[in-house]
Design brief:
The chain is mostly beta strands and about 130 residues long. It has no helices and eleven strands. Strand 5 and strand 6 form a beta hairpin. The radius of gyration is 13 Å and the shape is globular.
């Protein structure tokens, strides 16, 4: 079992930055590939970024590539999402998720993730 708690969301003006954090419980955090997803009102949950358990591999959705950076600190059981040059269309609830333990890759599909946090709201004003 993995419990995930996101933090760092808030209200920011367009062009600003936020850093989201996701703290995981348990001593096996380093075994899990991690991902960030987001869901805007009336829309389906969508992939944002993901990182492999060793940080060797990372992937991003097209709309955030070059603006967002995912990173993890296995010693602190935490995964981060640095979001720069934010746009109003980035407004959503952001969720972190943990994938299948032992996998050495990363995944972009929600079905590949077994554990989810409760989400943190990010609002970008124009």
């Amino acid at each position: 079992q993995v419990q995930l708690v996101e933090s760092g969301g808030g209200l920011v003006q367009a062009g600003g930055s936020l850093r989201l954090s996701c703290a995981a419980s348990g001593r096996t955090f380093s075994s899990y590939p991690m991902g960030w997803f987001r869901q805007a009102p009336g829309k389906e949950r969508e992939f944002v970024a993901a990182i492999s358990r060793s940080s060797a591999y990372a992937g991003y959705a097209g709309p955030v590539k070059g603006r967002f950076t995912i990173a993890r600190d296995n010693a602190k059981n935490t995964v981060y999402l640095q979001m720069n040059s934010l746009k109003p269309e980035d407004t959503a609830v952001y969720y972190c998720a943990a994938g299948t333990a032992g996998s050495n890759s990363y995944y972009s599909g929600p079905a590949d993730y077994s554990y989810w946090g409760q989400g943190t709201q990010v609002t970008v004003s124009s």
